[in-house]
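Quick note —
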Amino acid sequence: MSNPIDSFVMRFEQLRKELFDAIDYSIKMDGHHKSYEGKLALIWPHRFTDEYQIVLSCYVIGPSRGHTWTGKSHEECLAQAEEDIRRWIKEDEESWGDA
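Predicted structure written out below.
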């Protein structure tokens, strides 16, 4: 059994792969994109907060160019990001249909 950090990294990397695959497909279909597509950042709490964040910069997937998930741990943020990003990927795939 893996430790919590290994599990987090594996989940994060899997989500990143799914996102990059969707970005590649979207760019192939449409061509429009920004140089920062799929940039993900883990943010630790600063001195005066206890909030962790995962930040995504992405123009072609999702409802806006920037997305931030906030929680009491990176695990909590990742669970939110997994749900949202996978939903956005599904919506994107459905919008392309059989193109």
